[in-house]
Amino acid sequence: MFNTRIVSIVRKEFTQIFRDPRSLALIIVMPIIQLFLLGYAATTDVKNVPIAVLDQSQSAQSRELLDAFRAADYFRIDYYVGSTDEYQRLIESGAIRAVLVIPPDYDVQVLDGKAQVLFVLDGSDGSVGATALSTARLIGQSYATKVQESQFALRGAASLPTPPVEVRTQVWYNPDFQSAYFMIPGVIGMILSFITTILTATTIVRERERGTIEQLIVTPIRSWELIVGKLLPYVILAFVETFEILIVGHLVFDVPVRGSLWLITLASGLFLMSSLGIGLFASTIANTQQEAMLTVMMFNLPMIFLSGFFFPVQAMPKFLQFVSFAIPLRYYLVVIRALMLKGVGFVAVQGEIISLTIFGIVIMGIAALRFRKRLD
Q1: Which of 332, 196, 328 is nearest to 264 (CA)?
Q2: Using 50, 70 and 90 to split pLDDT, how confident is the model at 153?
Q3: Which CATH number goes with the domain that contains 159?
Q4: Burial state string for 274-298 with b = 16 or more CB within 10 A and e = fewer than 16
Q5: Domain ranges, residue 75
């Protein structure tokens, strides 16, 4: 027979597990969340890449070329621009990944068999950029073959010396598509998110487990002073880690830091408000350090997968793209990559910075109020 003592221990452990419904719910729910995130968000397929069009020809031939890009399902034409400055601002802000520039005499060039169009690509995301570049060239070749066949039929010619349409390409910010240029700025966001939330949540819960939090409550320290005092060391450590990654990334991996360090500091500080707020909120929910860790992971897993750190947001289902707008890390990654790789100013990322400010104030405010009630 099976050892009855082992059966008793197993029964006891299951009893303890079921007595902690929060941990049990996290254990059951987390695999389901991971399943959906990995099933839907974890995709390297490149599609629906937002692009702009500068159509200076406005001819039937240029519209045929745009139809070829639409039909490929890799690109989504979101903007029609009228100047180089306009599409440069869109690329700098991250609103588009590329722009197709069609020259004024494109229709004449097609008839002469020597048309050229320009495809300008944002290379800051190496994985998306390389695929988009090759796809644009393939679309151009396919369209050129179609035009060539129609010209054969009209002229009765056996062949043409060169393709009638050529897609010339330019890659901005990261011409060699080095993955470090894309990953290292993202690592800053990931570390700020993971380290601050985990340390904040577990530290406060550990104080409660040891009974030292009650000793602090009976002192003349006010609740807001306790919150600031507990969070400030992690703010300092987070900034130390941020600049450590910037320095090592620049010296070892040659990742450029083209933007203002003050703007990088400002954006990191605003993002820290959200991360620390999540950690503080988790500490008010959890009763043990283990429960605090599981609670924080419930926040961090969707944040990492839906932020665009690993996988392009444009390739995700529409529902997950909508959910990603509630992820502060998504906005921070746009800002930090734009500042480091593109060297943009405040205007180009002001929308993301405003969003980070709102998220930081709301999340930290809710967490602080709940923490103060828990102390009372």
Answers
A1: 332
A2: low
A3: 3.40.1710.10
A4: bbbbbbbbbbbbbebbebbbbbbbb
A5: 49-172
Q: Do 255 and 278 reside in the same domain of the chain?
A: yes
Which residues, including other chains, have CB under 8 Å from residue 193's CB and lie 6 or more apart? 271, 275, 300, 303, 304, 329
- pLDDT-derived band of residue 269, with 50, 70 and 90 as boundaries? very high
Pair of tokens at residue 212: 């030292």
- CA-to-CA separations, 78 to 121, 198, 200, 248, 317, in angstroms, rounded: 15, 39, 41, 37, 18
Residue environment code for 172-207, b if the CB has 16+ CB neighbours within 10 A, otherwise e? bbbeebeeebbbbbbebbbbbbbbbbbbbbbbbbeb
What is the Cα–Cα distance from 48 to 42, expressed in whole angstroms? Answer: 16
Helix, strand or coil, per DSSP, at residue 223: helix
Which of 26-40, 189-203, 263-277, 352-366 bottoms out in mean pLDDT, i.e. has the lowest?
Answer: 26-40
Number of structural domains, the chain? Answer: 2
The two structure tokens encoding residue 13: 């452990």
> Which of 294, 237, 238 has the alpha carbon at shortest distance from 267?
238
Tokens of 14: 């299951």
Phi-psi region of 306 (alpha: psi -120 to 50; beta: other; left: phi over 0): alpha
- 192 and 157 in a common domain: no
Q: Are residues 182 and 167 in the same domain?
A: no
Residues 362 and 235 in one domain: yes
pLDDT band at 9 (very low <50, low <70, confident <90, very high): low
Residue 29 one-letter amino acid = V
Q: Helix, strand or coil for residue 78?
A: strand
Instruction: Show the tokens assigned to 262.
Output: 């003050």
